[in-house]
Write a structure and sequence with these properties.
Number of helices: 4
Structural class: mainly alpha
Order of helices and strands: HHEEHH
Distance between the termini: 45 Å
CATH topology of the domain at 2-68: Arc Repressor Mutant, subunit A
Strand content: 5-15%
CATH architecture of the domain at 2-68: Orthogonal Bundle
CATH class of the domain at 2-68: Mainly Alpha
Oligomer: single chain
Largest sheet: 2 strands, antiparallel
Length: 99
């Protein structure tokens, strides 16, 4: 659960509520880590795996439909430009507006 907090920037209380909700709906189950009994490991149940598989298929379908008007070559060029912009604006030295 701690890694969720770090990875998604969600506070501990919210992570606990999310995990409890997913567990209550039988999408995940918790088990103690074999290495450190203080650590809860989270696992998908078969029901959770099915939901993830359906969601993944839908995301892929929407992604394909969204990009349909663009050729693979155009998309690759656009991705490169977007990635370059994201990297540049993460670096505080490059994020300032220049005259």
């Amino acid at each position: 659960q701690h890694s969720f907090q770090e990875q998604f920037g969600i506070d501990r209380t919210s992570v606990t509520a999310i995990v409890d909700g997913l567990e209550k709906r039988a999408y995940i189950y918790k088990d103690k880590s074999k290495d450190d009994k203080r650590v809860n490991m989270l696992y998908l149940t078969p029901k959770g795996k099915a939901v993830v598989a359906r969601a993944t298929r839908r995301v892929h379908r929407v992604h394909r439909e969204f990009l349909e008007p663009v050729s693979e070559e155009e998309w690759e060029r656009a991705r490169e430009v977007i990635l370059k912009l994201l990297i540049a604006h993460r670096n505080p030295d490059h994020s300032r507006i220049r005259p």
